[in-house]
Amino acid sequence: MGIGVVGAGTFHVLKRNQEEIRRRAGRGIAITMVADLDVARARAIAGEGVQVVNDARLVIANPDIDIVIELIGGYGIAKTLVLEAIAAGKHVVTANKALLAVHGTDIFAAASAKGVMVAFEAAVAGGIPIIKALREGLTANRIQWIAGIINGTTNFILSEMRDKGLDFGVVLKEAQRLGYAEADPTFDIEGVDAAHKATIMSAIAFGIPVQFDKAHVEGITKLVSADIKYAEQLGYRIKLLGIVKRRVGDAAKGTSDGIELRVHPALIPSKRLIANVEGAMNAVVVQGDAVGTTLYYGKGAGAEPTASAVIADLVDITRLHTADAAQRVPHLAFQPHTLDEAKGALPVLPMGDVVTSYYLRLRVVDEAGVLAKVTGILADANISIDAVLQREADEIGGEGSTQTDLIILTHDCVEARMDAALAQMQALPTVVATIVRIRKEELA
Questions:
Q1: Which domain, by its residues, includes 51?
Q2: Which of 90, 97, 197, 245 is catalytic?
Q3: Which of 155, 188, 386, 393 could hold 404 in an S-S bridge, CB 3.0 to 4.6 Å?
Q4: Residue 211: pLDDT above 80?
Q5: 105 and 155: one domain?
Q6: Secondary structure of residue 277 in the 3-state scheme
Q7: How far, in Å, CA of 338 to CA of 344, rounded?
């Protein structure tokens, strides 16, 4: 259902590698029917021997079809069609991260009740098999955290901003010209796409329901080249990260157990491998208690990389088609009846309860006592300072300038405390612009 870029890639890779796939799956996998509104384009891709229709419900109604591949995208008709396919007893393969992040709980429940599989490797990080790793390869581990560069568009933009010293708006136009960014790039640049993927990973890693509505989401639209340059001088690079983390509470610090689910720009030490992921590439770091740190790197989008994941799902379903439904790997890795808080699942924490460290940039009047006032506010809030960098005034506004930039790196603290301290610092008459706050993740 839907034979656009990814659908065409799936068709071509499946045809090209048919014999290899047959040897692995134990039987052939054939696409016999394609539904797309653009029938002429679909026929050009599918060629002879494949029935092409413009009504996806004809695919669902076909009794000879075992597996339905949904590559339409979005929350609307795709949800209806997926639920109808499940109700008809069809297995489903989808690359639709938005659908699963928002409606996954209902979809997986319907599939479990019907005894069919919903496979979604292609929904997160394109061709990187991160879902398979989390659901199966790392089953023995208590996952501690995941941090991922899981949106190629934003990573390309940030790489270009760093390399060329350009601001966001200029690089976005170039990314659109080169085809890395959509004409309407909102889902990418505002962090929504990454948050959909992080939501899915949080459910698989920690055994919680998919809860996109509880994710904290920030994009990259407010980043400027000055902060990328300062971060570099301090030994960091700025990336848009999807972060999911198991947090053990500390009564002395007033924190409780829970799951952090957040997407935002973050400073990462430049010596970390993930900090050196450039261009439109994706990477995911997983920290497990037994295995330690593992890194998954590759193309997060594109016709054939995504097709690789779609076809891996087809092979999995083909192998397990006749298996007892109760013995298959659960959709979200954990047994479905254990996913609610009453059965041990942890709650998603509000952003004010998150613990992290910070990069702060304050544009201040260049006069005595300013630094003392700022550090005094942080000390009163029990926020310790890791490093301070003050620029010469003439570097900021030219010779004779009366303003300067003050850059502060902090140690870990609860976000609510930082919010309160920022409000006090912003109210100082010597702070002459909106304070820039970017979170810092050591990923140690």
A1: 5-129+304-342
A2: 197
A3: 393
A4: yes
A5: no
A6: coil
A7: 7
